[in-house]
From TrEMBL, chain A:
GO biological process: cobalt ion transport
Protein's recorded name: Cobalt ECF transporter T component CbiQ
Pfam families according to UniProt: CbiQ
Gene Ontology cellular component terms for the protein in this record: ATP-binding cassette (ABC) transporter complex
Organism from which the protein derives: Kribbella turkmenica
Main subcellular location: membrane
Superkingdom of the organism of origin: Bacteria
Location(s) in or outside the cell: Cell membrane
Protein's membrane topology: Multi-pass membrane protein
Keywords, sorted A to Z: Cell membrane, Membrane, Transmembrane, Transmembrane helix
Membrane-traversing stretches: 21-38, 44-62, 69-86, 106-127, 139-157, 230-250
Gene name of the record: cbiQ
UniProtKB/TrEMBL annotation, chain B:
Record family assignment: Belongs to the ABC transporter superfamily.
PANTHER family reported in the protein's UniProt record: ENERGY-COUPLING FACTOR TRANSPORTER ATP-BINDING PROTEIN ECFA1 (PTHR43553:SF24), HEAVY METAL TRANSPORTER (PTHR43553)
Lineage: Bacteria, Bacillati, Actinomycetota, Actinomycetes, Propionibacteriales
GO molecular function: ATP binding; ATP hydrolysis activity; ATPase-coupled transmembrane transporter activity
Primary location class: membrane
Keywords, in A-Z order: ATP-binding, Cell membrane, Membrane, Nucleotide-binding, Translocase, Transport
Gene Ontology cellular-component terms listed: ATP-binding cassette (ABC) transporter complex
ABC transporter domain location: 6-241
Protein name in UniProt: ABC transporter ATP-binding protein
Cellular localisation: Cell membrane
Superkingdom, natural source: Bacteria
InterPro entries per the UniProt record, alphabetical: AAA+_ATPase, ABC_transporter-like_ATP-bd, ABC_transporter-like_CS, ABC_transpr_CbiO/EcfA_su, ECF_ABC_transporter_ATP-bd, P-loop_NTPase
């Protein structure tokens, strides 16, 4: 696990936007997409075009975005099941009897899920973990949550290194338990890992108190965003809101 | 603001589980002195240094008795923030000490807790990183650094608080020879009182003119490092051994430089 998270290190307009602008933009865009009725197909087309534009502006490799889309797989499986298990009037698709509401439901899950995931990929690939934290902090996420996230990012690599060393130690002593045996060993190892991590937590707390920690984390320094940066960052999201409103209000 | 840098009197401490760690520790370290704290594992060295900035002991709400003075002022609950600024503790595992997302944030943690903000804070961070030669790595995440670099950043996190006393727990452990030498160059160039726990006896001789030898929760010897290391009976009685072929009488120490 590298500590840069999912950041793709290229330089682009999207990379340079302040993190809190991008977080707000993602949030607004997802709200707009989710509130659009599934039957408004043209609206989803427009959203897709906007997101492709965002990916291109961010200069992200298409292959990488496609690969990261695989996190969506469980939802796709669920969506593909829907037409078969849903009830209601039937339609005939390629010789299969499918539920009409099920097909629409599947489309709904697939379209909204994919759009949301692509938007999240754009955010995570253009923003480093530290900037994300600073952005969340600027958006007034409670300091305790920011601190927990920050420790998670910092110590994930330390803990996974621990886990890795324990596995090597196990295999070096000739452990070959097959898949089930490995699971059993990992379960035992997780207990040991928990104790180790807990003890590390205590030592970290001592180190924090030694440097004058009294229960409030100092703020991560960030610069604010200019109004033009807000406008640039929110451009796509605002367009999406306009589309969603058009669908709802005008009933196009 | 006078008096010795560290003055410890009849310090007694037992952990909450009943294990007695300190059985009456007395010692004084004058300003500007460099002192090594030697002793076998389990002697109570780390427990002792955790008392020096009030992490353990009666001020921290624990059990124990005795008196500790830092720079002439007694250790009291109301002075704790001030004492924690004066006594900088560098822990043994840099992964425990570096907990922020980047080197810069981490070095800023201490001074920010002291109330520094803005450009004053940035200057302080830069100054501390320059002292350990890590100013070009400020924006990296700690786990992207080598172990030696992390140890140096850990020293910088404490230096950024401008301590009067620098306390290090096994600073040379797990370092390769070059990183070990780089750290000793940094430490010998600092203008602070130094107390250093170490098992690395040549390191103690190189950096510290004076040594305290601790065993079973007591100070059992206090004197010139060279004399202590040269006393074979004393060393053997407290499970201390010199590296193969090392003769403490034949190498230069800090006393010859001055």
């Amino acid at each position: 696990m590298s500590g840069d998270g999912l950041l793709v290190t290229v330089d682009s307009r999207v990379h340079r936007l302040p993190a809190h602008v991008k977080i707000v933009a993602l949030f607004v865009l997802v709200l707009a997409v989710v509130s659009t009725p599934a039957a408004a197909f043209w609206a989803f087309g427009l959203y897709a075009v906007m997101l492709v534009a965002a990916v291109v502006t961010a200069r992200l490799p298409v292959l990488l975005v496609a690969r990261r889309l695989t996190v969506e797989t469980p939802f796709i499986v669920f969506a593909l099941l829907l037409p078969f298990v849903a009830t209601g009037p039937r339609v005939d698709v390629l010789g299969l009897e499918l539920s009409q509401s099920g097909v629409l439901g599947a489309w709904n899950v697939l379209a909204k899920g994919t759009l949301g995931v692509v938007a999240a990929i754009v955010l995570s690939a253009t923003t480093g973990p530290r900037d994300l934290l600073a952005g969340l902090e600027r958006l007034r996420l409670p300091a305790t949550l920011v601190a927990i996230l920050s420790f998670m990012i910092r110590y994930l690599s330390v803990v996974s290194d621990d886990l890795h060393r324990m596995r090597i130690a196990r295999e070096s002593r000739g452990y070959a338990g097959g898949r089930a045996g490995h699971l059993k060993a990992v379960a035992g190892g997780v207990g040991a890992l928990f104790v180790r991590s807990f003890e590390r937590g205590e030592r970290v707390h001592l180190a924090m108190r030694s440097r004058g920690y009294t229960g409030r984390m100092p703020l991560l320094s960030t610069r604010g965003a200019t109004s033009s940066q807000w406008l640039e960052g929110l451009a796509i999201s605002l367009a999406a809101v306009a589309v969603a409103l058009a669908v709802r209000v005008v009933g196009l | 603001m006078s008096g010795p840098a560290i003055h410890v009197e009849r310090l007694v401490f037992a952990y909450p589980d009943g294990r007695q760690a300190l059985y009456g520790v007395d010692f004084t370290v004058q300003r500007g002195e460099r002192v090594a704290l030697l002793g076998p594992n389990g002697a109570g060295k780390t427990t002792l240094v955790l008392h020096l900035n009030g992490i353990l002991g009666s001020v921290a709400g624990g059990t124990g008795s005795g008196r500790i003075q830092i720079g002439g002022t007694g250790l009291h609950r109301e002075h704790l923030p001030e004492v924690r600024r004066k006594v900088g503790l560098v822990f043994q595992d840099p992964d425990d000490q570096l907990f922020m997302p980047t080197v810069r944030d981490d070095v800023a943690f201490g001074p920010a807790n002291l109330g520094l903000r803005g450009s004053e804070l940035d200057d302080r961070v830069h100054e501390a990183l320059v002292q350990v030669g890590m100013q070009d790595h400020a924006d990296l995440a700690p786990h992207h650094l080598s172990f030696g670099q992390r140890r140096r950043v850990a020293v910088a996190t404490v230096l950024a608080m401008r301590p009067e006393v620098l306390v290090l727990d096994e600073p040379s452990s797990n370092l390769d020879p070059a990183a070990r030498r780089e750290l000793s160059d940094i430490l010998s160039g600092l203008d602070v009182t130094l107390l250093m726990i170490t098992h690395d006896l040549p390191y103690a001789l190189q950096l510290c003119e004076r040594s305290l030898l601790m065993d079973d929760g007591r100070i059992v010897a206090d004197g010139r490092t060279r004399d202590l290391l040269g006393d074979a009976d004393l060393m053997a009685a407290h499970r201390l051994e010199l590296p193969y072929g090392f003769d403490p009488l034949s190498v230069p120490g800090p006393e010859r430089k001055g």
